[in-house]
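We now fix the convention by which a protein and its fold are recorded. These numbers are not coordinates but entries in a learned vocabulary of local backbone shapes. A record is reproduced here so that you can trace the correspondence yourselves:
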Amino acid sequence: MKKIIPLLLVIVAMGWQKLQPTTPTQPTATRTAQAQTQAQVANKKTPTSNDFEKVLQQAFENQQSNIQIQGVGTVSKTLPDDTKGTKHQRFIVKLSSGQTLLFAHNIDLAPKIRSLKKGDTLEFFGEYEWTEQGGVIHWTHHDPSKRHADGWLKHNGQLYQ
């Protein structure tokens, strides 16, 4: 029951967000996820893999985007950096469910994870965007303009933000 309530809260928040007009202010679902993450950090709890993976699987199946999510996975492939325009470190992470996610980590705003390699465990807090291949996680960095939730990546105990 304790696992169902947070999941329902996230689903309700996502549905409510979809009904709201787009504004430059931080969406309620983002504020809710950010508050939940801050509470988890304060309580030293991390979501179980089933919680965030179920949310991501539903988002993929329903072609939903703009979902702030925290989770963990294994690096399955590192890709060349995208150096056109804003620079992004790119890599693919596989979740225990089998779902794969492309990560686009802005290295103009956050440090690059230089030691990242296949098989590494990676914790993350960022925004999910739907794609046919499984989805993209971005906003894994701080937002200097404070219009978006600050994201992060954690690799070998080091926080990249």
Q: What stands out?
A: The CA atoms of residues 78 and 91 lie 4 Å apart.
